[in-house]
């Protein structure tokens, strides 16, 4: 025969498992709604520099996360870094859309910002976004500024 304490522990354990299962269901249902699971398609973008971009990096439209980078590899023919972007099927991007590598503040991580264009036709799965802007190195910008200041001082 079980004591009241054992019975209470059993009910508390069952409640914890039920709550954990609810959180698991909620988190996976939320990912499918945001396009991270469910129906997606892939677009390609070839960048001259993908510093800070790797598999799993956010893809955003108007600052809202809509997908992730699914692959990054070097094209040996063009020496450009090709990124594959997983986008939800319900987001249709015009053919003249742009892909830009942005950073979250000075010390933040990088992400790919998609800027929809105004063309009548949309990109199809597997198409390439041709209007791209690669990553800007903060260190190289600072070095150019320092060089410019030192050359002005030397005049």
From TrEMBL:
Pfam family, any one: MlaD
Transmembrane segments: 7-26
This protein's UniProt keywords: Membrane, Transmembrane, Transmembrane helix
Claim: Protein biosynthesis is one of the keywords in the record: no
Keyword Membrane among record annotations: yes
Record-annotated Mce/MlaD domain positions: 40-117
Superkingdom per UniProt: Bacteria
UniProt-recorded Gene Ontology molecular function terms: phospholipid binding; phospholipid transporter activity
Protein name according to UniProt: Outer membrane lipid asymmetry maintenance protein MlaD
């Amino acid at each position: 025969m079980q004591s009241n304490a054992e019975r209470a522990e059993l009910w508390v354990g069952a409640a914890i498992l039920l709550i954990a299962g609810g959180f698991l269901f909620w988190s996976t249902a939320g990912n499918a709604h945001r396009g991270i699971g469910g129906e997606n398609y892939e677009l390609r973008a070839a960048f001259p520099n993908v510093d800070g971009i790797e598999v799993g990096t956010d893809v955003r439209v108007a600052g809202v996360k809509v997908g992730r980078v699914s692959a990054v590899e070097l094209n040996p023919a063009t020496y450009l870094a090709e990124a594959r972007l997983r986008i939800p099927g319900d987001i249709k991007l015009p053919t003249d859309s742009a892909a830009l590598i942005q950073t979250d503040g000075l010390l933040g991580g990088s992400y790919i910002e998609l800027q929809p264009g105004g063309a009548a036709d949309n990109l199809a799965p597997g198409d390439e976004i041709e209007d791209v802007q690669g990553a800007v190195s903060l260190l190289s910008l600072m070095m150019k500024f320092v060089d410019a200041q030192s050359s002005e001082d030397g005049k």
